[in-house]
Amino acid sequence: MKQIKTAATILLLLSLVFSCSKDNNDSNNPPSGITAQPANDNKSGGVYKGTITGSSGSFYINLQDGDNKIYTVFDGQKDTLSTTTVITSGAAISQALFTGHTGMSLVFSVSADGNNPVVNSFTIPGHPFAEAFMFKEKSNQQVMVFEGRFTKTAGPANCESGMINALLIGNTLYGYFKEDGGQHLSGHFTSTVSNNQFSFTAVSATGNCTINSSKSQITGTASDPSGCASTVSCTRTL
Questions:
Q1: What is this structure's pTM?
Q2: Separation of alpha carbons 49 and 73, rounded Å
């Protein structure tokens, strides 16, 4: 009986080990700090980070150490996108197709020196209004990704709530928004952060926001001339 218990215990431990290993392999959680290598700062290889709107998500392109994959989280679902394109850091990348098991696909191009990264096309099944935006991260310049919402607090019935995501690079914040309903009104804005504060104009709306000292949260308010008012709340996710 003791031997049976021991064997059962071993089997249970092995099951837990394999389960944990699978979870770790599938977790596809990019690091929170800078991982871009200095050798790729002025080359097409390295690290790129981005945000997804319609619904909401983030992605991390790792083109170093032979990895050459895109790690995404969209609506809480994780996917790893791979490519058959040969990636050589220092050579231009032209419309490299990355695909994942969820049906998500992203076509990516960038110049040989790492400038002008472009999402040529982006597809998520069931999300016809999805868009992707990204920037290159360098060894001395981190890209931070925030995801959140603007939530209607006052105004006429046609006032909308929606998503508002952002990419922060140094003191420059690039915001991307998309309404929940109607015509899926969307757009983007650029703002300068000073003393953890920034203001923005998005179509006819203006807003004022604060980034906390740890750069983990954005909060604020927005309003437009028609009387629509909303709160803004974003959390750093990458």
A1: 0.85
A2: 12
